[in-house]
Design brief:
The complex is a heterodimer. Chain A has one domain (about 10-90): Orthogonal Bundle (Arc Repressor Mutant, subunit A). Chain A has 5 helices and 3 strands. Chain A has helices spanning about 20-25, 35-40, 55-65, 70, 85-90, and strands spanning about 10, 15-20, 85. In chain A, strand 1 and strand 2 form a beta hairpin. By secondary structure, chain B is of the alpha/beta class. Chain B has 2 domains: about 1-45 and about 150-220 and about 330-395, FAD/NAD(P)-binding domain, CATH 3.50.50.60; about 90-140 and about 220-330, 2-Layer Sandwich (D-Amino Acid Oxidase, Chain A, domain 2). In chain B, helix 1 (about 15-25) packs parallel to helix 5 (about 150-160) and helix 2 (about 60-75) packs across helix 10 (about 355-370). Classes of the chains: A mainly alpha, B alpha/beta. Chains A and B meet through helix 2, strand 3 and helix 5 of A and helix 5, helix 9 and strand 18 of B.
């Protein structure tokens, strides 16, 4: 990521997490995407990181000098997209 | 080589709490964690902080002390652990459950704690989205919620103010004992630390650390699965569990009027709306080894059970699920204790679903044991010695 991005730029739109907050989480000890997520909620919203995950990864790479593989990605958990409890309870038959 | 007065292994709830209290007492303390803080059980669970959901006796007593400690800690911490004194409700589906609940509340009240029976009307006033055909329940005013991984991060940040050293991504590979079997050093994959006091706060992984000093710790991973809703208005204003959860936990022969699917997967409702506005819905207690994979059938059973109590969920979205493993101890009580046969070795593990609630008191008790102070209360029942020279099968608690 180009370091010209300001600290107040939004990275995770769902949870409204900025570049600055992500850098702070890294300073507190986050080493990967999941560590950032836990400290900032980036990637915990409705889209589950689809929008911001790559960017969080890039900030980690830039701040820690690591590879995207080392920065990792969030663990994938069902459902693949939002689904109502009613549909879930019915055995996911829509 | 670095020397520490005490080394705590495990960056979860019990480990971070213990490290915090030890550092606060002025000891030179290191916290070792093989991954990141709160990367295991603490970030794969809900935030129930209850004196309820425990057995009358030492279990409720430690719950009470712990919830009161949370109240004190949030005043001292500048780090927000999202503590919410929202109260706790057990809901009953049948008259049989109401009878058992009344009996349980009477026992807890007799111990001097605040838990009372509430009727259907009060229940629905407190939780307006509850199904209207439920019988009533129990109310515990003092119970609440925290954000479990923030509790860990909070203990670490606050502990650092007292000089706590935190070594994440350091995996313990061995513990060196001297000729008298006393703790001498902790070996990690990166460096070795000298110390004569070590705390095994590794939860479901505590048996592996125990093995390093020749102990057979009777803890097994027990899996829970939770669903997360989209953000919405507050669905649950309090922490809510079905009373059948408690009955199923302590009385193996108890049967609920549930579907075969719910019964087979041991699914019971628990629900809480978190600070973020998402609602966490569970849950189940299953033995699946160390696997935390989410099982689709269980998601289905949880959704079915949750809609039975909170019909509003039917049209709400589930955005994520997650599984986690909790440290189930043979007799349903955690081990919070020194180990006589290995001087300098302490265990703070085995809390199963109560680890969030009990973290503060566990950390405080261990810190008091290490410094040789009088403990907050008599914790003999939590001692490691209860497993010595006994048939462990006979020790296993009734229930599941």
């Amino acid at each position: 990521m180009d370091s010209k991005f300001d600290d107040d730029m939004l990275v995770c739109r769902c949870e409204e997490v900025t570049v600055g907050e992500i850098k702070e989480a890294i300073a507190q000890g986050a080493r990967d995407v999941v560590g950032v997520k836990r400290r900032t909620r980036a990637g915990m919203g409705l889209c589950q990181g689809r929008t911001c995950e790559k960017m969080v990864q890039q900030i980690l790479c830039q701040e820690l000098g690591i590879s995207p593989e080392e920065a990792g990605c969030s663990s994938i958990r069902p459902p693949a997209r939002p689904i109502t409890f009613g549909t879930l309870a019915g055995g996911m038959k829509e | 080589m670095k020397y520490y007065d005490a080394i705590v292994i495990g960056g979860g709830l019990q480990g971070t709490s213990t490290a915090y209290f030890l550092a606060k007492k002025g000891l030179r303390v290191a916290l070792l964690e093989r991954d990141d803080i709160a990367s295991g059980t603490a970030s794969h669970t809900d935030g129930a902080t209850l004196i309820s959901d425990k057995q009358p006796g030492i279990d409720v007593l430690q719950g009470y002390h712990s919830v009161e400690l949370y109240r004190k800690l949030v005043k001292e911490f500048s780090y927000d652990i999202e503590f919410e004194s929202c109260g706790f409700m057990y809901v009953c589906e049948t008259d049989q459950e109401m009878e058992a609940a009344a009996d349980y509340a009477a026992k807890v009240s007799a111990q001097g704690f605040d838990m009372r029976v509430i009727d259907q009307k009060e229940m629905c006033e407190r939780e307006r989205y509850l199904a209207k055909d439920l019988k009533g329940g129990l109310w515990t005013e003092s119970d609440g919620l925290v954000n479990p991984y923030k509790v860990c991060l909070g203990f670490v940040e606050e502990g650092r103010k007292y000089g706590l050293d935190v070594y994440t991504h350091h995996e313990v590979t061995g513990i060196r004992l001297n000729k008298k079997n006393q703790v001498e050093a902790v070996i990690t994959d990166r460096e070795t630390f000298l110390t004569d006091k070590v705390v095994n706060a590794c939860g479901v992984w505590a048996p592996a650390i125990g093995n390093m000093v020749g102990l057979d710790i009777p803890i097994e991973p027990r899996k829970g699965i939770l669903l997360v809703t989209e953000k919405s208005e507050t669905i649950a204003h309090t922490e809510v569990l079905e009373f059948g959860y408690w009955l199923a936990k302590f009385f193996a022969d108890f049967k609920r009027p549930v579907s075969e699917l719910v019964e087979r997967h041991n699914v019971c409702l628990n629900i809480e709306t978190t600070h973020s506005g998402n609602t966490i819905v569970g849950g189940c207690r299953l033995f699946r080894g160390y696997d935390i994979k989410v099982e689709y059938e269980i998601m289905q059973a949880i959704a079915e059970r949750a809609i039975r109590f909170f019909p509003i969920l039917k049209d709400m979205n589930c955005i994520r699920s997650f599984g986690g493993i909790r440290p189930f101890c043979l007799d349903h009580l955690p081990i919070v204790s020194g180990v006589e046969e290995v001087p300098g070795f302490y265990i703070a593990a085995g809390h199963e679903g109560d680890g969030v609630a009990l973290a503060p008191i566990t950390g405080l008790l261990i810190s008091q044991m290490i410094t040789g102070e009088k403990t907050e209360f008599d914790a003999t029942e939590l001692a490691w010695s209860r497993f010595k020279n006994v048939d462990r099968k006979k020790l296993a608690a009734h229930g599941n």
